[in-house]
Amino acid sequence: MQLKENRSGSLFACQEIQEQRFQLYLKMVMLKAQIQSYIWYNI
Fold first, then answer.
1. Tens digits of residue pLDDT in 17-40
2. Which domain of life is it from (predicted)?
3. What b/e string do you get for 2-37 counting C-beta neighbours within 10 Å, with b at 16 or more?
4. Which H helix or E strand runs over 37?
5. What's the N-to-C CA distance of the chain in angstroms?
6. Does residue 42 surpass a pLDDT of 90?
7. CA–CA separation, 36 vs 39, rounded Å?
């Protein structure tokens, strides 16, 4: 019983980490796009 709980808990933590990583990746992509458009407008 306890093992099951622990397993689901670690699984949840893993999902949370993946979500944070995905959000960070999304932020990076958005930032890159903004920088590229900024450079494009200033040429």
1. 899 999 999 999 999 999 988 887
2. Bacteria
3. eeeeeeeeeeeeeeeeeeeeeeeeeeeeeeeeeeee
4. helix 2-42
5. 63
6. no
7. 5
Tell me the C-alpha distance between 11 and 7, whole Å. 6
Q: In whole angstroms, how far apart are CA 33 and each of 5, 16, 27, 40? A: 42, 26, 10, 10
Q: Residue type for 25, please?
A: Y
The Cα 30–Cα 33 span in angstroms is 5
| Structure-token match 């450079």, residue found | 39
